[in-house]
Design brief:
Order of helices and strands of chain B: HHEHEEEHHHHHHHH
Strand content of chain B: 5-15%
Helix content of chain B: 55-70%
CATH class of the largest domain in chain B: Alpha Beta
Order of helices and strands of chain A: HHHHHHH
Shape of chain A: rod-shaped
Oligomer: heterodimer
CATH superfamily of the largest domain in chain B: Metalloproteases ("zincins"), catalytic domain
Helix content of chain A: over 70%
Structural class of chain B: alpha+beta
Distance between the termini of chain B: 19 Å
Radius of gyration of chain B: 21 Å
Strand content of chain A: under 5%
CATH topology of the largest domain in chain B: Zincin-like
Largest interface: A-B, 15 and 16 residues
Number of helices of chain B: 11
CATH architecture of the largest domain in chain B: 2-Layer Sandwich
Number of helices of chain A: 7
Largest sheet of chain A: none
Radius of gyration of chain A: 23 Å
Protein backbone atom coordinates (compact mmCIF):
# COMPACT_ATOMS: atom_id res chain seq x y z
CA UNK A 1 0.00 0.00 0.00
CA UNK A 2 2.65 2.43 1.09
CA UNK A 3 4.65 1.96 -2.09
CA UNK A 4 1.62 2.94 -4.24
CA UNK A 5 1.38 6.23 -2.37
CA UNK A 6 5.04 6.87 -2.86
CA UNK A 7 4.83 6.08 -6.56
CA UNK A 8 1.81 8.38 -6.84
CA UNK A 9 3.64 11.24 -5.17
CA UNK A 10 6.68 10.66 -7.34
CA UNK A 11 4.55 10.80 -10.49
CA UNK A 12 2.94 14.07 -9.41
CA UNK A 13 6.36 15.48 -8.62
CA UNK A 14 7.71 14.37 -12.00
CA UNK A 15 4.79 15.99 -13.83
CA UNK A 16 5.38 19.20 -11.90
CA UNK A 17 9.11 19.24 -12.68
CA UNK A 18 8.47 18.60 -16.37
CA UNK A 19 5.88 21.37 -16.59
CA UNK A 20 8.16 23.90 -14.90
CA UNK A 21 11.06 22.83 -17.09
CA UNK A 22 8.93 23.30 -20.20
CA UNK A 23 7.86 26.70 -18.95
CA UNK A 24 11.53 27.68 -18.75
CA UNK A 25 12.09 26.45 -22.29
CA UNK A 26 9.17 28.54 -23.56
CA UNK A 27 10.21 31.68 -21.67
CA UNK A 28 13.78 31.35 -22.85
CA UNK A 29 12.63 30.95 -26.45
CA UNK A 30 10.48 34.07 -26.09
CA UNK A 31 13.44 36.05 -24.84
CA UNK A 32 15.46 34.89 -27.82
CA UNK A 33 12.69 35.90 -30.18
CA UNK A 34 12.34 39.29 -28.53
CA UNK A 35 16.09 39.76 -28.80
CA UNK A 36 16.03 39.10 -32.53
CA UNK A 37 13.16 41.60 -32.66
CA UNK A 38 15.53 44.25 -31.30
CA UNK A 39 18.15 43.11 -33.80
CA UNK A 40 15.79 43.65 -36.72
CA UNK A 41 15.20 47.24 -35.64
CA UNK A 42 18.88 47.92 -34.98
CA UNK A 43 19.61 46.64 -38.47
CA UNK A 44 17.00 49.00 -39.87
CA UNK A 45 18.67 51.87 -38.09
CA UNK A 46 22.11 50.84 -39.39
CA UNK A 47 20.74 50.69 -42.93
CA UNK A 48 19.21 54.17 -42.77
CA UNK A 49 22.39 55.91 -41.67
CA UNK A 50 24.57 55.94 -44.84
CA UNK A 51 21.68 57.56 -46.67
CA UNK A 52 21.28 60.15 -43.95
CA UNK A 53 25.00 60.92 -43.83
CA UNK A 54 25.26 61.40 -47.58
CA UNK A 55 22.20 63.65 -47.59
CA UNK A 56 23.54 65.85 -44.80
CA UNK A 57 27.01 65.90 -46.43
CA UNK A 58 25.46 67.39 -49.54
CA UNK A 59 24.54 70.51 -47.56
CA UNK A 60 27.09 70.61 -44.73
CA UNK A 61 30.42 69.38 -46.06
CA UNK A 62 32.76 70.69 -43.36
CA UNK A 63 31.08 69.12 -40.32
CA UNK A 64 33.55 66.24 -40.64
CA UNK A 65 33.82 65.30 -36.98
CA UNK A 66 30.06 64.78 -36.74
CA UNK A 67 30.03 62.41 -39.70
CA UNK A 68 33.04 60.55 -38.35
CA UNK A 69 31.35 60.03 -35.01
CA UNK A 70 28.19 58.72 -36.62
CA UNK A 71 30.07 56.37 -38.92
CA UNK A 72 32.22 55.11 -36.08
CA UNK A 73 29.22 54.49 -33.83
CA UNK A 74 27.45 52.75 -36.69
CA UNK A 75 30.29 50.34 -37.38
CA UNK A 76 30.72 49.51 -33.71
CA UNK A 77 26.99 48.73 -33.54
CA UNK A 78 27.39 46.47 -36.58
CA UNK A 79 30.27 44.62 -34.91
CA UNK A 80 28.59 44.34 -31.50
CA UNK A 81 27.73 40.76 -30.58
CA UNK A 82 26.53 40.52 -27.01
CA UNK A 83 23.51 42.25 -25.58
CA UNK A 84 25.67 44.53 -23.48
CA UNK A 85 27.81 45.63 -26.43
CA UNK A 86 24.76 46.24 -28.54
CA UNK A 87 23.11 48.36 -25.88
CA UNK A 88 26.28 50.39 -25.45
CA UNK A 89 26.91 50.87 -29.17
CA UNK A 90 23.29 51.78 -29.72
CA UNK A 91 23.47 54.48 -27.05
CA UNK A 92 26.63 55.82 -28.65
CA UNK A 93 24.91 55.97 -32.01
CA UNK A 94 21.96 57.80 -30.45
CA UNK A 95 24.28 60.47 -29.09
CA UNK A 96 26.12 60.81 -32.40
CA UNK A 97 22.83 61.14 -34.29
CA UNK A 98 21.62 63.75 -31.86
CA UNK A 99 24.60 65.96 -32.62
CA UNK A 100 24.11 65.33 -36.33
CA UNK A 101 20.52 66.57 -36.13
CA UNK A 102 21.66 69.50 -34.00
CA UNK A 103 24.13 70.45 -36.74
CA UNK A 104 21.40 70.13 -39.35
CA UNK A 105 19.47 72.86 -37.50
CA UNK A 106 22.05 75.36 -38.82
CA UNK A 107 21.33 74.59 -42.47
CA UNK A 108 17.89 75.84 -43.53
CA UNK A 109 18.19 74.34 -47.03
CA UNK A 110 18.91 70.94 -45.54
CA UNK A 111 16.02 71.22 -43.13
CA UNK A 112 13.70 72.14 -45.97
CA UNK A 113 14.67 69.21 -48.20
CA UNK A 114 11.98 66.57 -48.38
CA UNK A 115 14.55 63.82 -48.60
CA UNK A 116 16.05 64.88 -45.28
CA UNK A 117 12.65 65.27 -43.64
CA UNK A 118 11.66 61.81 -44.81
CA UNK A 119 14.90 60.30 -43.49
CA UNK A 120 14.53 62.13 -40.21
CA UNK A 121 11.07 60.82 -39.55
CA UNK A 122 12.11 57.32 -40.56
CA UNK A 123 15.02 57.45 -38.13
CA UNK A 124 12.81 58.82 -35.38
CA UNK A 125 10.32 56.06 -36.05
CA UNK A 126 13.09 53.46 -35.93
CA UNK A 127 14.17 54.85 -32.57
CA UNK A 128 10.63 54.36 -31.33
CA UNK A 129 10.66 50.85 -32.71
CA UNK A 130 13.92 50.06 -30.95
CA UNK A 131 12.54 51.47 -27.71
CA UNK A 132 9.37 49.39 -27.96
CA UNK A 133 11.13 46.17 -28.96
CA UNK A 134 13.44 46.72 -25.99
CA UNK A 135 10.38 47.16 -23.78
CA UNK A 136 8.97 43.87 -25.08
CA UNK A 137 12.32 42.16 -24.53
CA UNK A 138 12.60 43.49 -20.99
CA UNK A 139 9.09 42.44 -20.02
CA UNK A 140 9.89 38.92 -21.24
CA UNK A 141 13.13 38.93 -19.27
CA UNK A 142 11.25 40.13 -16.21
CA UNK A 143 8.79 37.24 -16.41
CA UNK A 144 11.61 34.73 -16.88
CA UNK A 145 13.79 36.17 -14.11
CA UNK A 146 10.90 36.17 -11.67
CA UNK A 147 10.39 32.49 -12.39
CA UNK A 148 14.11 31.78 -11.98
CA UNK A 149 14.22 33.48 -8.61
CA UNK A 150 10.93 32.55 -6.98
CA UNK A 151 10.29 29.39 -5.01
CA UNK A 152 9.80 26.55 -5.88
CA UNK A 153 10.67 27.01 -9.56
CA UNK A 154 14.11 28.31 -8.55
CA UNK A 155 15.06 24.79 -7.44
CA UNK A 156 14.37 23.44 -10.90
CA UNK A 157 16.11 26.41 -12.50
CA UNK A 158 19.15 25.59 -10.40
CA UNK A 159 19.18 21.94 -11.36
CA UNK A 160 18.98 22.69 -15.09
CA UNK A 161 21.28 25.72 -14.85
CA UNK A 162 18.76 28.35 -15.93
CA UNK A 163 20.27 31.68 -14.89
CA UNK A 164 18.93 35.20 -14.78
CA UNK A 165 19.05 37.06 -18.08
CA UNK A 166 20.27 40.67 -18.35
CA UNK A 167 17.89 43.54 -19.20
CA UNK A 168 18.51 45.74 -22.22
CA UNK A 169 19.49 48.94 -20.46
CA UNK A 170 19.07 52.44 -21.79
CA UNK A 171 20.54 55.83 -21.02
CA UNK A 172 18.45 58.50 -19.38
CA UNK A 173 19.17 60.89 -22.26
CA UNK A 174 17.63 58.55 -24.80
CA UNK A 175 14.46 58.26 -22.81
CA UNK A 176 14.07 61.99 -22.90
CA UNK A 177 14.40 62.27 -26.63
CA UNK A 178 11.28 60.13 -27.08
CA UNK A 179 9.17 63.05 -25.86
CA UNK A 180 9.71 65.06 -29.04
CA UNK A 181 6.61 66.86 -30.32
CA UNK A 182 5.99 66.56 -34.04
CA UNK B 1 -9.38 41.04 -12.32
CA UNK B 2 -6.31 40.20 -14.40
CA UNK B 3 -6.05 40.48 -18.15
CA UNK B 4 -6.37 36.70 -18.55
CA UNK B 5 -9.59 36.70 -16.55
CA UNK B 6 -10.96 39.42 -18.75
CA UNK B 7 -10.17 37.51 -21.92
CA UNK B 8 -12.01 34.38 -20.80
CA UNK B 9 -14.82 36.50 -19.38
CA UNK B 10 -15.27 38.23 -22.72
CA UNK B 11 -15.23 34.94 -24.62
CA UNK B 12 -17.78 33.43 -22.26
CA UNK B 13 -20.07 36.42 -22.58
CA UNK B 14 -19.87 36.23 -26.37
CA UNK B 15 -21.11 32.65 -26.31
CA UNK B 16 -23.78 33.59 -23.81
CA UNK B 17 -24.86 36.48 -26.00
CA UNK B 18 -25.21 34.18 -29.01
CA UNK B 19 -27.34 31.69 -27.11
CA UNK B 20 -29.67 34.36 -25.73
CA UNK B 21 -30.00 35.88 -29.13
CA UNK B 22 -30.89 32.59 -30.80
CA UNK B 23 -33.44 31.67 -28.13
CA UNK B 24 -35.07 35.07 -28.18
CA UNK B 25 -35.16 35.41 -31.93
CA UNK B 26 -36.56 31.91 -32.47
CA UNK B 27 -39.29 32.33 -29.87
CA UNK B 28 -40.40 35.62 -31.40
CA UNK B 29 -40.71 33.91 -34.76
CA UNK B 30 -42.54 31.02 -33.16
CA UNK B 31 -45.05 33.42 -31.63
CA UNK B 32 -45.61 35.11 -34.95
CA UNK B 33 -46.07 31.70 -36.52
CA UNK B 34 -48.63 30.81 -33.86
CA UNK B 35 -50.70 33.89 -34.63
CA UNK B 36 -50.64 33.18 -38.33
CA UNK B 37 -51.23 29.47 -37.90
CA UNK B 38 -47.97 28.06 -39.23
CA UNK B 39 -45.89 27.78 -36.09
CA UNK B 40 -43.53 25.03 -37.28
CA UNK B 41 -42.42 26.83 -40.42
CA UNK B 42 -41.75 30.02 -38.47
CA UNK B 43 -39.91 28.15 -35.75
CA UNK B 44 -37.50 26.70 -38.31
CA UNK B 45 -37.23 30.03 -40.08
CA UNK B 46 -36.46 31.89 -36.86
CA UNK B 47 -33.88 29.32 -35.86
CA UNK B 48 -32.20 29.50 -39.27
CA UNK B 49 -32.10 33.28 -39.39
CA UNK B 50 -30.77 33.63 -35.87
CA UNK B 51 -28.15 30.92 -36.39
CA UNK B 52 -26.95 32.49 -39.61
CA UNK B 53 -26.86 35.99 -38.19
CA UNK B 54 -25.03 34.99 -35.04
CA UNK B 55 -22.47 32.94 -36.96
CA UNK B 56 -21.97 35.74 -39.44
CA UNK B 57 -21.67 38.17 -36.54
CA UNK B 58 -18.73 36.07 -35.39
CA UNK B 59 -17.01 35.80 -38.77
CA UNK B 60 -18.04 38.92 -40.66
CA UNK B 61 -18.88 41.56 -38.06
CA UNK B 62 -15.63 43.40 -38.78
CA UNK B 63 -16.42 43.66 -42.49
CA UNK B 64 -19.98 44.75 -41.83
CA UNK B 65 -18.80 47.42 -39.41
CA UNK B 66 -16.14 48.66 -41.82
CA UNK B 67 -18.79 48.83 -44.51
CA UNK B 68 -21.31 50.70 -42.38
CA UNK B 69 -18.73 53.24 -41.19
CA UNK B 70 -17.28 53.66 -44.73
CA UNK B 71 -13.73 52.93 -43.58
CA UNK B 72 -10.87 52.55 -46.07
CA UNK B 73 -7.42 50.95 -45.79
CA UNK B 74 -4.72 53.33 -44.57
CA UNK B 75 -1.67 53.88 -46.73
CA UNK B 76 1.64 53.79 -44.83
CA UNK B 77 3.19 56.74 -46.68
CA UNK B 78 0.12 58.94 -46.47
CA UNK B 79 -0.66 58.21 -42.83
CA UNK B 80 2.95 57.67 -41.70
CA UNK B 81 2.54 58.60 -38.03
CA UNK B 82 -0.62 56.57 -37.55
CA UNK B 83 0.60 53.49 -39.39
CA UNK B 84 4.04 53.37 -37.78
CA UNK B 85 2.58 53.96 -34.32
CA UNK B 86 0.41 50.87 -34.79
CA UNK B 87 3.52 48.94 -35.89
CA UNK B 88 5.54 50.14 -32.90
CA UNK B 89 2.94 49.38 -30.26
CA UNK B 90 2.32 45.89 -31.62
CA UNK B 91 6.08 45.34 -31.34
CA UNK B 92 5.91 46.46 -27.70
CA UNK B 93 3.13 44.00 -26.95
CA UNK B 94 4.33 41.16 -29.17
CA UNK B 95 0.94 41.18 -30.87
CA UNK B 96 0.11 40.43 -34.51
CA UNK B 97 -0.35 43.55 -36.62
CA UNK B 98 -4.02 44.50 -37.05
CA UNK B 99 -5.35 45.81 -40.34
CA UNK B 100 -5.09 49.59 -40.34
CA UNK B 101 -8.06 51.67 -41.55
CA UNK B 102 -9.16 55.29 -41.68
CA UNK B 103 -12.55 56.98 -41.97
CA UNK B 104 -12.51 60.14 -44.04
CA UNK B 105 -14.35 62.38 -41.59
CA UNK B 106 -13.60 65.65 -39.81
CA UNK B 107 -14.77 64.45 -36.42
CA UNK B 108 -12.31 62.90 -33.96
CA UNK B 109 -12.90 59.25 -33.17
CA UNK B 110 -11.41 55.76 -33.24
CA UNK B 111 -12.44 52.14 -32.81
CA UNK B 112 -11.13 48.59 -33.00
CA UNK B 113 -13.02 45.52 -34.15
CA UNK B 114 -12.55 41.89 -35.16
CA UNK B 115 -12.87 38.53 -33.45
CA UNK B 116 -9.33 37.96 -32.11
CA UNK B 117 -5.92 39.64 -32.25
CA UNK B 118 -5.06 37.75 -35.45
CA UNK B 119 -8.20 38.98 -37.18
CA UNK B 120 -8.43 42.50 -35.90
CA UNK B 121 -8.91 45.95 -37.32
CA UNK B 122 -8.04 49.34 -35.98
CA UNK B 123 -9.67 52.42 -37.41
CA UNK B 124 -9.45 56.18 -36.79
CA UNK B 125 -10.95 59.24 -38.45
CA UNK B 126 -8.78 61.52 -40.57
CA UNK B 127 -9.96 64.39 -38.35
CA UNK B 128 -8.33 62.73 -35.38
CA UNK B 129 -5.06 62.26 -37.26
CA UNK B 130 -4.91 65.87 -38.38
CA UNK B 131 -5.62 67.32 -34.94
CA UNK B 132 -3.40 65.10 -32.77
CA UNK B 133 0.38 64.86 -32.59
CA UNK B 134 2.29 61.59 -32.72
CA UNK B 135 2.34 61.04 -28.96
CA UNK B 136 -1.41 61.61 -28.71
CA UNK B 137 -2.12 59.27 -31.63
CA UNK B 138 0.03 56.73 -29.83
CA UNK B 139 -2.16 57.06 -26.74
CA UNK B 140 -5.33 56.48 -28.75
CA UNK B 141 -3.87 53.52 -30.66
CA UNK B 142 -2.60 51.94 -27.43
CA UNK B 143 -6.11 52.22 -25.97
CA UNK B 144 -7.57 50.48 -29.02
CA UNK B 145 -4.88 47.78 -29.03
CA UNK B 146 -5.78 47.02 -25.41
CA UNK B 147 -9.37 46.44 -26.50
CA UNK B 148 -8.04 44.00 -29.10
CA UNK B 149 -5.79 42.23 -26.63
CA UNK B 150 -8.55 41.88 -24.03
CA UNK B 151 -11.01 40.47 -26.60
CA UNK B 152 -13.35 43.38 -25.95
CA UNK B 153 -13.58 43.62 -29.73
CA UNK B 154 -15.16 40.19 -30.10
CA UNK B 155 -18.03 40.95 -27.79
CA UNK B 156 -18.67 44.48 -28.91
CA UNK B 157 -18.58 43.76 -32.63
CA UNK B 158 -20.92 40.80 -32.20
CA UNK B 159 -23.28 43.05 -30.28
CA UNK B 160 -23.20 45.51 -33.15
CA UNK B 161 -24.37 42.93 -35.66
CA UNK B 162 -26.93 41.23 -33.40
CA UNK B 163 -28.44 44.50 -32.22
CA UNK B 164 -28.51 45.57 -35.85
CA UNK B 165 -30.42 42.40 -36.76
CA UNK B 166 -32.89 42.91 -33.90
CA UNK B 167 -33.51 46.50 -34.83
CA UNK B 168 -34.01 45.50 -38.45
CA UNK B 169 -36.57 42.82 -37.66
CA UNK B 170 -38.57 44.86 -35.18
CA UNK B 171 -38.50 47.71 -37.63
CA UNK B 172 -39.88 45.46 -40.36
CA UNK B 173 -42.57 44.03 -38.09
CA UNK B 174 -43.75 47.40 -36.84
CA UNK B 175 -43.97 48.65 -40.40
CA UNK B 176 -46.21 45.72 -41.30
CA UNK B 177 -48.24 46.53 -38.26
CA UNK B 178 -48.69 50.17 -39.26
CA UNK B 179 -49.44 49.41 -42.90
CA UNK B 180 -52.20 46.90 -42.53
CA UNK B 181 -50.93 43.64 -41.06
CA UNK B 182 -50.51 40.19 -42.56
CA UNK B 183 -54.08 39.03 -43.19
CA UNK B 184 -55.50 40.56 -46.30
CA UNK B 185 -58.97 39.10 -45.77
CA UNK B 186 -59.48 41.16 -42.64
CA UNK B 187 -59.53 38.20 -40.32
CA UNK B 188 -60.06 40.24 -37.19
CA UNK B 189 -59.39 37.55 -34.66
CA UNK B 190 -55.97 36.70 -36.12
CA UNK B 191 -54.79 40.25 -36.61
CA UNK B 192 -55.80 41.13 -33.06
CA UNK B 193 -53.62 38.38 -31.70
CA UNK B 194 -50.90 39.44 -34.05
CA UNK B 195 -51.08 43.04 -32.84
CA UNK B 196 -50.96 41.90 -29.27
CA UNK B 197 -47.84 39.85 -29.94
CA UNK B 198 -46.21 42.74 -31.72
CA UNK B 199 -46.79 45.02 -28.79
CA UNK B 200 -45.33 42.35 -26.57
CA UNK B 201 -42.31 41.98 -28.84
CA UNK B 202 -41.65 45.69 -28.88
CA UNK B 203 -42.03 45.81 -25.12
CA UNK B 204 -39.52 43.00 -24.76
CA UNK B 205 -37.13 43.97 -27.53
CA UNK B 206 -36.50 47.53 -26.52
CA UNK B 207 -35.17 46.82 -23.06
CA UNK B 208 -33.42 43.72 -24.35
CA UNK B 209 -31.51 45.76 -26.89
CA UNK B 210 -30.46 48.12 -24.17
CA UNK B 211 -29.40 45.25 -21.95
CA UNK B 212 -27.41 43.70 -24.75
CA UNK B 213 -25.54 46.91 -25.30
CA UNK B 214 -24.89 47.26 -21.61
CA UNK B 215 -23.77 43.67 -21.43
CA UNK B 216 -21.07 44.49 -23.90
CA UNK B 217 -20.13 47.83 -22.57
CA UNK B 218 -19.20 48.12 -19.01
CA UNK B 219 -17.74 51.45 -18.10
CA UNK B 220 -14.94 49.58 -16.40
CA UNK B 221 -13.80 48.33 -19.76
CA UNK B 222 -12.90 51.81 -20.97
CA UNK B 223 -10.99 52.63 -17.81
CA UNK B 224 -9.14 49.36 -18.11
CA UNK B 225 -8.21 49.97 -21.74
CA UNK B 226 -6.97 53.44 -20.75
CA UNK B 227 -4.81 51.95 -18.03
CA UNK B 228 -3.35 49.11 -20.10
CA UNK B 229 -2.82 51.52 -22.97
CA UNK B 230 -0.81 53.76 -20.67
CA UNK B 231 1.18 50.73 -19.60
CA UNK B 232 2.16 50.05 -23.22
CA UNK B 233 3.23 53.60 -24.05
CA UNK B 234 4.55 54.39 -20.55
CA UNK B 235 3.18 57.86 -21.21
CA UNK B 236 -0.38 58.36 -19.88
CA UNK B 237 -0.27 62.05 -20.77
CA UNK B 238 -0.47 61.18 -24.47
CA UNK B 239 -3.93 59.66 -24.17
CA UNK B 240 -5.02 62.27 -21.62
CA UNK B 241 -4.15 65.09 -24.03
CA UNK B 242 -5.84 63.25 -26.88
CA UNK B 243 -9.05 62.76 -24.87
CA UNK B 244 -9.00 66.41 -23.90
CA UNK B 245 -8.80 67.47 -27.53
CA UNK B 246 -11.51 64.97 -28.48
CA UNK B 247 -13.85 66.27 -25.79
CA UNK B 248 -13.30 69.87 -26.87
CA UNK B 249 -14.06 69.01 -30.46
CA UNK B 250 -17.70 69.45 -31.41
CA UNK B 251 -17.93 67.82 -34.81
CA UNK B 252 -20.13 64.71 -34.82
CA UNK B 253 -19.35 61.65 -36.90
CA UNK B 254 -21.38 61.57 -40.12
CA UNK B 255 -21.93 57.85 -40.59
CA UNK B 256 -22.89 56.52 -37.23
CA UNK B 257 -25.71 54.35 -36.04
CA UNK B 258 -26.92 53.20 -32.67
CA UNK B 259 -25.60 49.74 -33.39
CA UNK B 260 -21.97 50.83 -33.69
CA UNK B 261 -21.86 53.76 -31.23
CA UNK B 262 -20.42 51.73 -28.38
CA UNK B 263 -17.38 50.72 -30.43
CA UNK B 264 -15.88 54.18 -30.51
CA UNK B 265 -13.37 55.68 -28.11
CA UNK B 266 -15.69 58.61 -27.45
CA UNK B 267 -19.41 58.92 -27.98
CA UNK B 268 -19.90 59.66 -31.70
CA UNK B 269 -23.21 61.50 -31.14
CA UNK B 270 -21.68 64.59 -29.51
CA UNK B 271 -23.61 66.77 -27.14
CA UNK B 272 -25.62 69.14 -29.26
CA UNK B 273 -28.20 66.75 -30.68
CA UNK B 274 -31.37 65.26 -29.33
CA UNK B 275 -30.01 61.85 -30.18
CA UNK B 276 -27.13 62.35 -27.77
CA UNK B 277 -29.54 62.81 -24.88
CA UNK B 278 -31.20 59.55 -25.83
CA UNK B 279 -27.88 57.75 -26.09
CA UNK B 280 -26.91 59.00 -22.65
CA UNK B 281 -29.59 56.71 -21.30
CA UNK B 282 -27.48 53.80 -22.43
CA UNK B 283 -24.29 55.63 -21.42
CA UNK B 284 -21.91 53.44 -23.33
CA UNK B 285 -19.03 55.70 -22.40
CA UNK B 286 -17.93 56.94 -19.00
CA UNK B 287 -17.45 60.65 -18.57
CA UNK B 288 -14.41 61.70 -20.51
CA UNK B 289 -13.34 64.15 -17.79
CA UNK B 290 -13.14 61.36 -15.29
CA UNK B 291 -10.92 59.36 -17.62
CA UNK B 292 -8.62 62.32 -18.19
CA UNK B 293 -8.35 62.89 -14.45
CA UNK B 294 -7.33 59.30 -13.79
CA UNK B 295 -4.77 59.32 -16.61
CA UNK B 296 -3.27 62.55 -15.35
CA UNK B 297 -2.82 61.11 -11.88
CA UNK B 298 -0.93 58.02 -13.13
Amino acid sequence: MNSTYIIGILIILAVYVVSIYNKFVVLKARIKEAFSGIDVQLKRRIDLIPNLVSTVKGYAKHEKSVFENVTKARSSLMKAGSLNEKAKANNMLSDALKSLFAVAENYPDLKASTNFQDLQRQIEDTEDKIAYSRQFYNSNVLEYNTKVKSFPSNVIANVFAYKEEPFFETQASERENIKVDF
Amino acid sequence: MTVYNIISYNKLRSVFLMIIFIIFFTSVFYLIGLSIGNSQLYLVLGLLISLISSLSSYFYSDKLILFSTKAIKADKRKYFNYYTVVENLTIAEGMPMPKVYVIDDNSMNAFATGRNPKNSIICVTTGLLSKLNRKEIEGVVAHELSHIKNYDILLSSMVSVLVGALVFVTDMLSRRWLFGGFSSDNDNRNSNIFNLILILVVIIVTPLTATLIQLAISRKREFLADASGALITRYPKGLANALEKISNDNIALKNYSGATAHLFISNPFKNNTLKSKFSNLFSTHPLINERIKILRSM
